[in-house]
Write a structure and sequence with these properties.
The chain is an alpha+beta fold. It has 1 helix and 3 strands, in the order αβββ. It is rod-shaped, with a radius of gyration of 41 Å. The termini are far apart. Keywords: Coiled coil.
Length: about 100
Amino acid sequence: MTNLLFLHFRSKTRIIKTEEFLMSTDKLEREIAEATEIIKNANQMLERAKSMEREAQLNLLQATQHLHELLKKRDELNGCLDDDEFGDTWIREGRGAQSRRE
């Protein structure tokens, strides 16, 4: 009888351990799925950030080029225009010059 009780107790223990194992395995599978989803979302965010960075770099390059062109035009105009002590702006052209009131 003792052997029978021991076997009965042992089989119950195995069932409980098997259920605990299955529950812990299910929990691990859920956690793995959640972690996989987090990684997938993070990769998508990273790709969007890289795309935004490339766009920002292109915008910066275009703005820098435009600024360079504007500064060049300003320097060209500053080299051609002179103000005298009477407030007249003189446009230098070759040897002669003309006055332009502003």
